Amino acid sequence: MTGYEHLCMNCMADTEGQAKCPRCGFPQQEPQRKDALPYRTVLQERYMVGRAKRSDPEGFTYIAFDMQQLCTVQIREFFPHEICARITGSTDIAVIAGNETAFDEYLNDFISYQESIAKFRDQPAILAVQDIFEENYTAYAVSPWEEAITLRYFVERSGGSLSWNAAWKLFMPVISAVSAMYAAGVGHYGISPDTLFIMPNGSMKLGAFCSPAVRISGGCLLPNLQSGCAAAEQYDANAKLGENTDVYGMAATLFYALTGVLPKDARDRRSDPRLLLPASTLRSIPPHVVTALANALQVSRSERTPTFERFRAELSAAPTATASLEETQSLRRISSPYDDSADRATHAAQQQEQEQEAENIRKPIPKFVGIILICVAVLICVTVGVVAYLSNHSGSLGELAVATSAASSVENPVTGNASESALTNSGVNHSAISAVSSSDVISSASDSAENESTASASSLSSPSSLTSSSNSSSMASSVPEGQIVVPNLVGKNYYSLSKSSDYQVVLTSKEFSDSIKEGCIISQTPSSSGTMVKGAAISVTVSQGAALRELPDVAGLSYDAACKKVDAVGLVPDGKTLQSSNSIPKGQVIGYADGLKAGSKLNYQYSVTLLVSTGADNTDSEDVAD
Questions:
Q1: Which of 351, 267, 340 is nearest to 307 (CA)?
Q2: Please, are residues 70 and 55 in contact by the beta-carbon 8 Å criterion?
């Protein structure tokens, strides 16, 4: 882009044509992070992308330059490393086959969550979003760039801890801001010393917003959790995150600011919930603050401080405000889709619920319930018997097999159409998937029944005929519309593969192999034993050849020819050293420096220096003649 050739990709300052930025010292030849967008990629014909500053399970965070507003911005790219890859030589993203549905769901969650954060752009204690758009088969969120440092670095630079007065001034505005977020049903779930930032004016802001999907373990994406700040429920895939999840993270971060250390991991605190404080530190913190931290850092959610309003009141040591909160605790705010309503109740309400549950347990089961259970058990036994009978007499029940197939189509419509709608061209369509009406499902089922009525009863009643095949032709005939049989790429040369309109091949890793030739594919995901959505990506691991390479014989070759021969075996020719030789003509290669010889085995990409002849040494020749 004309006029921006000298922008530093690390700080967006003018390099004045120098190899290193005069402002930040960043070498302009420094390569970009693996899989990140190339330097100077332009998005929306507006944003020029620079260095990828951070990478986490959800994606990349770049520094960029807004060529319309002429200012530096921060761009968040949705790039879940576990289920997608960057297409070689392109800015597009390819979803690894088998993850199309998950990718679309997570992408929609990313966009929805970033849109919710954008609503707080006027909140001074939040690094809000100012622009959201889709490109390269993924989505991006743009925020103002702040010349800020993390709270962790600020505390370290401040001697390892902060006084209560200093911490109080930093944390109270952020606590109020997060409370306002929860009033709108939005949480953060990743509050830590690394997601709170100190601005140049000395204030603190909350940033690094990630979708809730990466703030809890057990999903398709790796969790992005800070040990010591993540609440115990965030390590349970079935738990719901709520306001007191963030209360725990905020309290742990405040604990760090006051002491210089984080609490123990919440999983370890289940057996030992104590918060250990040195006596000197304990004396410097007001008693009411210690109590507030202890309440907010309870491992059990039912015993933890339920809201930020309550947490702020306890930190402020305002008995009147605390009492008022207790009286109005039952007032509810806008619910969050990730919120656990039980955690918003007071301790008294929770205790009352528990007592009611215990009372219900003690009540005897009514007689009519027992009769119903017996009837259900009998019905199940009869159903099992009928199924067993039918499985033993499938050969004579062709019509029933057809009916069963049609019924199966009603219960589980053909997935090919839905899968095909998830793709556009070579990538994935990231718009929301439309719901299928019941009439469409029934129509699809009846059409399926008519098409299958010509098949033999035995093939319809055989599950193996629908799930596997002994040859490629029978498998192809059973592949649903919009899907293809996964090709077997293992052993093929990755760099010689021809392009296919049916699938994409994405190189995600390289490994050394003594048995697989360099450039050939070692493994692939998904494997060739099943089917995949047409147009999806196949992730491959490519061989780098043997880890040890043998030095070739280069004696008598020209320097250029020797360099090519060394490079061809995976070693690096790194300059030359001149040396006289009575047997090798001037300008030709004698061998290798540093005592290396042809046949020596060296690690891949090891640098070697070549010895080049300057011809016979006349002095030595005369001495020999004498």
A1: 340
A2: no
When the candidates are 1.10.10.10, 3.30.10.20, 3.10.20.90, 3.40.50.10490, the CATH number that belongs to 483-543 is 3.30.10.20
31-145 in CATH: which number? 3.30.200.20
Residues of the chain with CATH 1.10.510.10: 149-319
Question: For the domain 548-613, what is the CATH code?
Answer: 3.30.10.20
pTM (predicted TM-score): 0.63
Structurally, at CATH architecture level, domain 149-319 sits in Orthogonal Bundle (1.10)
Contact call for residues 115 and 130 (beta carbons, < 8 A) = no
Angle at 45 between CA 40 and CA 51, to 5 degrees: 25
Distances (CA, A) of 567 to 491, 493, 561: 23, 19, 10
Structure confidence by residue, pLDDT tens digits, 238-291: 899 999 999 999 999 999 999 999 999 999 999 988 887 777 778 889 999 999
Percent of the chain with pLDDT over 70: 73
Look at the block and give the residue holding tokens 């030739």.
517
Q: Where do runs of H (alpha helix) occur along 286-437?
A: 287-296, 308-316, 319-327, 347-362, 367-392, 398-411, 415-421
79: nearest Cα among 97, 100, 92, 60: 60
Per-residue confidence (pLDDT) for residue 530, from 0 to 100 = 85
